[in-house]
Amino acid sequence: ADDPPIPFFHGTNDELVTIKGPEKMIEEFREKGVEAELVRIDRGDHITAAMNKEAVDQAVSFLSKHLSSE
Length: 70
What we know:
The chain is of the alpha+beta class and about 70 residues long. The chain contains 3 helices and 2 strands, in the order E-H-E-H-H. The chain has helices at about 20-30, 45-50, 55-65, and strands at about 5-10, 35-40. It has a two-stranded parallel ribbon with strand order 1-2. The radius of gyration is 13 Å and the shape is flat. The relative contact order is 0.27.
């Protein structure tokens, strides 16, 4: 696929968006050949997952790996 890789991170305590949403999106992206990754943030909610340094670091690592020109 010509689509860019997509990293997701999601808090396990997110009550606004359940974990099933990103899990389904990851499954569908992969079926279409799009590189996708889901990082679960233990006990994170909707906001704290987005601000989690480990998640951001993993997203940067994932994108660096897949977008590298090497």
